[in-house]
Every structure is written in structure tokens, then in C-alpha cells.
Amino acid sequence: MTDFLISKIKQYVEVDDADIDLINELFVKEKYPENTIVLSQGSVCNKLWFISRGLLRFSINVDGDERTFVFRNEGSFTSDIDSLLKKTPSTKSIITIEESELYSITYEKLQLLYKKMKNGERFGRLLVEETFIGAVNHIVSFYSEPPEKRYIKLLDQNKDFIQRIPQYHIASFLGIKPQSLCRIKKRIYKTN
Amino acid sequence: MTDFLISKIKQYVEVDDADIDLINELFVKEKYPENTIVLSQGSVCNKLWFISRGLLRFSINVDGDERTFVFRNEGSFTSDIDSLLKKTPSTKSIITIEESELYSITYEKLQLLYKKMKNGERFGRLLVEETFIGAVNHIVSFYSEPPEKRYIKLLDQNKDFIQRIPQYHIASFLGIKPQSLCRIKKRIYKTN
User: Fold this and answer.
1) In CA terms, which of A8, A170, B50, B60 is 20 to 30 Å from B27?
2) Which of A12, A69, A91, A128 to mutate to test the interface with B (most CBs of B within 10 A)?
3) Is the ipTM of this complex over 0.85?
4) Nearest CA to CA, how far is A165 from chain B (Å)?
5) What is the pLDDT of residue B61?
6) pLDDT tens-digit series, residues A54-70
7) Burial of A160 by CB count in 10 Å (0-12 exposed, 13-18 middle, 19+ buried)?
8) What is the pLDDT of residues B147-175, one digit of tens each?
9) From the CB of residue B60, how many other CB atoms can be counted at a distance below 10 Å?
10) Which of B86, B121, B137 sits opposite A121 (nearest CB)?
11) Is A61 in contact with A100 (CB distance < 8 Å)?
12) Residue of B30, B13, B33 lying closest to B125 (CA atoms)
């Protein structure tokens, strides 16, 4: 059941049979219909999730205006790391775009995984390093690049699932109106 | 010599005698006069530093305008983690405010430390987690809080060394002109 999860953990560290038993014991399968809240802005995030199937988006509610700022697809680990580590209310929501199957591990069990898995601490370090790089890239891109450039990057980096994301979420991600996204797409496809 | 460094590492993990030998072997002492570049924007950051004495600032050059955005004092580990991990050119400079004494470890030796120190991987995880939280807090604060609030927070969180930072660096950190900082200070001291 957790084969996909285990194969992903193996991309970070070596995993033996005892580790696999531990992973099976500590992770719990969760299923969500489409457009369903996994984590609600304002609540403390107490889990790390692995997406075994489906598609999620992260969004922030700014004065009633809901802005999507990250997409995560199957094969990704995801969480609000900041809220998870500090036990403070999350500044964002995590919402399914499609029906999704996730494997979740609570903060407490994650500490157990780090401790008991042969290369648990190393797995944790590599996971946080990767999340850190992703977050920095995202922020730098958001504040320094125009929507058109960010759209091309989004297409480029997310070939596998970009066609599964509704256009209004993509427009929200770019910080523009759907009509402006239409114009950008016309321009791009005319040039290429 | 590295007593301060070792006592700081002990705040993250247990350290035994073999670990101490390793730390002494892998870290190198560096001394910098005041106003000296430790890391230059555009070059790849290949080190993690521990500040045993002194004060540093992080700055970004935006179209010729140099903006300070972080201060780090003695007892802190510091690096451009993003550049260090990805081996990409750093998007910031690290510059001394005062004469400073640092202990540096190269990326390659840091990997050795993670591997060979008893709790090396755990130390690495906790260090990156802490850096992650700091970076997120900083970014959220910068984009969501007015200069006056950020100034009060800066005073509050950096009581130990705030008086050692020249006013023009503080103004730069707040994204305002030195005259505006004067007005903010007058307002604050009048109210209290």
C-alpha cells in the first residue's frame, strides 16, 4: 500500500525491512474528495503529508481574497513546515484540486520516525533542506519576476500536471485576472 | 578555542570527546576587519559560519541600491543556505559591521560532520529547521508589517546588540530613509 511512499523515501536514504515496518506503522492513509480542505488557515498544522495520488494547492486568504501560491502533486511531501515546527496557527490553507489520497504522519510520530529509522535524521535533514530551497525559490520568483515569466516557469517545472489545474487557480497563482492569463497564453503560443 | 562553538552545538545535540576532536578538525578560524565582505553576492557560498565574536549583516544589491535585510551576532550559525545547498550564485552579500571572528566549515566538511558526528544528521536537521523558521518569519514580517512595527520587533528580538548597529543600516533594514527612522524613534520614545 505504501510502496510509492517507500520508493520516495528511498530517493533520500537507504531503507531496510525494519524501517519499512516502521513507515507502515506510523503513516496513516487519508482520502479527500476534490475541493476539500486538508489544512485550514488559522489552525495548527500537526502533520506531514505524502501525496500518493491527486493534486493540492496552498492558498492564503488576504482580506477575503483567496490567493493560490503553490501546487503540489503526487510523489511530493508537503506540510506547513513553519506551523508544524513552531506549533503556531498556519498562515495558509491546503486544499485538494482533485480527489486525493495522502499518507499522513503526525508531528510526534515524525519525531519517532527520525529517531527510530536507521537514517531517519538524515531523511529529515534532506527533506527540510529541499523544502527550504523550494520556499526560497518560490518567494524570490514571486517578488522579482513578471507574471509571464512565472507562467513559463510554471509550465516548465510542472509538465506532469499543469493541464489538471483549472485556469482560475493558475491566474490566482500568477496574481493576475483570468483574462490577463488568456492574453499571456495567446502571446506565448503566437511566438512559439 | 572552539569552546563557544561547542557549547552552541551542545544546545542542539549531545556531543562527546570524539565529536569535539572532529569539530576542532573541521572548523577553521577566520578573522575579518569591520566593513569587510565575508560572502560576495554573485559568488557561490561554500561555507557555513559560526560567529564567535562580532556582528554581520546580509545585504542585497538592487539596481545599485544596497539593502540590508538581516543582522546576525555572536553565537549564531549563518550561511546563504540556498546557495550552499544548490551551489548556485548567492543572491546576497554577508558583510561585517564590526571586526569579527568566525569559525567556518566548507560544504564538503559539513557533510563529513553530519556523517561522522554521533548526532551529526540530527544537528543538521535542527539547524536547517531553525534557519527555515527564521527565514519565513523574516519574509512574512517584511511584506506584512509596517516599518514602525518591524522596528519595535527588531529592538525586542535583538536587545543584546541593537545599539552596536549604525542607524543607516537599521534604516536600510526597515526599507526607509534615516530621517524617517528618526521620526519613528521620536514617536516611540514619546509614547513610552
Assistant:
1) B60
2) A128
3) no
4) 27
5) 84
6) 999 999 887 888 888 88
7) exposed
8) 898 899 889 888 889 999 999 999 988 88
9) 15
10) B121
11) no
12) B13
- Residues on B contacting A at a C-beta cutoff of 8 Å: 81-82, 85-86, 91, 114, 119, 121-122, 124-125, 128-129, 131-133, 135-137, 139-140
Question: Which range is most confident: A60-74, A158-172, B43-57, B162-176?
Answer: B43-57
Q: What is the pLDDT of residues B102-152, one digit of tens each?
A: 999 999 999 999 999 999 999 999 999 998 888 877 777 776 788 898 899
CA distance B186 to chain A (A): 32
> Whose grid coordinates read 533520500?
A12
- The C-alpha cell 518569519 sits at B137
